[in-house]
Amino acid sequence: MKSLSITIFLLFCGFSFGQQQQINAIDNPIDYVNPLMGTDSKPSMSNGNVYPAIAMPWGMNFWTPQSGKMGDGWAYVYDADKLRGFKQTHQPSPWMNDYGQFAIMPVTGKLVFNEDERASWFSHKSEIVKPHYYSVYLADHDVTTEITPTERTARFRFTFPETDSSYVVIDALDKGSYIKILPEENKVIGYTTKNSGGVPKNFKNYFVIEFDKPFANTHTFNGGNLSGDMEAEADHVGAVIGFKTNKGEIVNARVASSFISHEQAALNLNEIGAKDFDALKAEGRKIWNKELNRIKVEGGSIDQFRTFYSCLYRSLLFPRKFFEYDKDGNVVHYSPYNGKVLPGYMFTDTGFWDTFRSLFPFLNLMYPELNNQMQEGLANAYKESGWLPEWASPGLRNVMVGNNSASVVADAYLKNKNAKYDIETLYEAVIHGANNAGPLTAVGRAGASYYKELGYVPYDVDINENAARTLEYAYDDFAIYQLAKALGKPKKEIKLYKKRSLNYKKLFDPETKLMRGKNKNGDFMAPFNPFKWGDAFTEGNSWHYTWSVFHDIQGLMDLMGGKEAFAAQLDEVFSLPPVFDESYYGGVIHEIREMQIANMGQYAHGNQPIQHMIYLYDFAGQPWKAQYWIRETMDRMYRPTSDGYCGDEDNGQTSAWYVFSAMGFYPVCPATDEYVVGTPLFKKMTLSLQNGKEVTINAPTNDHENKYIQKMTFNGKEYSKNYVSHQELMKGATIDFEMGTAPNKKRGTAKEDAPYSLSNE
């Protein structure tokens, strides 16, 4: 017994400390994905603020079990013990909420349809959650529900008990819905109009549900009233389909939807075709494995594998496809901007303030062909609305700051100049957005006239978060400058945007060595509290936003007094206590609380403004500090568990940070050719690029302790630079890292080793 106890203890230690238990290559990365990572969240504390998305990569429709009430942005939370249904969802975030949603729920016994009355207890112990497959046992109804999706459809499989009172509730939800039962076809059709904004007046999500068993009885409901009618249209309608079932009897349902019409929804059912549930499930598993296997990792702990592939899964969901295929196979879309059905691509459900930083650069590296379609979709959005969407869900939404569509457009073109899409229309769009205030505060540039006249958005002209806007506008002008050069635009135009990209200097306060709001008369706003969240900044404070000079770190370094002073200011971010002033918000927002509890000083990795900051040590000739803090963040702030993120996941951005960082480099400045070197996480990683080339990243001595780069070679040649080139990677490359437990303070310290800065042009 004693030896057995020791063995168990040693095994426990191996599992407790991920760095001690290494695994090698795997064939089925989908088995390491946990869609529940980040679901243990609530408004006051985000550990991801995500739901388990049962979906295909970038699918038009996702499915999720629904624990929250109708209209609750927190549709599924890990600590819930009841499910109200299984919802088709298009929600990009709980803060944006959902649109075009409807729910399906099996019940037995008493005929109930109200979401509270039909709810059933469930347990995670009887729940299987995979990207392509979901299964759960509903205890109150003695029914097992299974779901497997395609991009625009899904199959449901219900396993019922023996009863003459088996039902399936189809809830089209409130705010305007329609339902019709077609018993001779074992079919239910309907539509939902429920949304959270950003839709034209004629918006509908049309659905069709086909069962493989005749209906024993049928009902529709209108609000709280049940009737025998076959059709209903009102604020809140639905249907209840009844069956008589034997013990263990399986009832299948095929579900499809369309933003165009019921006829198009029926056409979308062709994605299922004749495939039964198991065949569709196997196909979904194959699709996910194919995409996840495009990045193969070897040599890491099982938790690192789980975290990596869970983050990669989240990086492959948004922006979602918002287009369909007509009867002739042509790409068409319902426009969320003007309500028309038009030819061409459309994507939606992403906020560029979050995702320009690493999610879109990730797509440019690994999925340039898909991103070309996304760029076509952006050109269509501009043609249909007159603006590029900064936050689309599904149309224009009035959220966040900046004009970061310029970065998304420029980075895509600069990294794939041979792409065949309408770049001239997109250039027109970014110029229009850069010089005009839009119909919403978050579209175009709020304060554009002030910015063009003064070089900044003033603090005292009733435009909130003005310093954040100024800093992001300056970077966005840099992206336009880069794009204008590549397109051969007039020299005067190129010069203008280069000049405007230096506007960040106007907000630098030499006294505090921080960015600070400035009044219209040129005086800095006062009093100034660098720990005050919001006010002149967006979801952060001056310590977070001071580093938002992605394109000219050398210029920022010069303002701070040189490399040593700059590095010392970076150090202070981590050494300061996590104090804060929340007075602008009138309470502690979740982003503040997440910084406070992280025990990393003022470093707030749970939100986007500062996520690139760690890599800035490379510009100051101290890359070993970047290596230390990158690994600290990866080890401490990410886990493959329900509380696995350290803030909002935000449409793949926070996940893509992890994916890039695990590669050993990160896109500090999109719209340049460079990735800044960090520290690789695994012993080996192989990237399969869409052009058929491979990038192999070797770090055979890598482990938890060996986090510091001792030596780096690129294609066999010793390499001291603190950056790697996108164009060189696209040719295929082999990067070798020699890792060690102590910093190498000689490598990457020369001036010429620093990554790109505009001031060094």
From TrEMBL:
Keywords: Calcium, Hydrolase
Glycosyl hydrolase family domain location: 264-740
NCBIfam families: aman2_put
One GO MF term: hydrolase activity
Coiled-coil residue spans: none
Originating organism: Galbibacter pacificus
Cofactor(s) of this protein: Ca(2+)
Protein name in the entry: GH92 family glycosyl hydrolase
Region (Disordered): 740-761
Self-association state and partner proteins as the record states: Monomer.
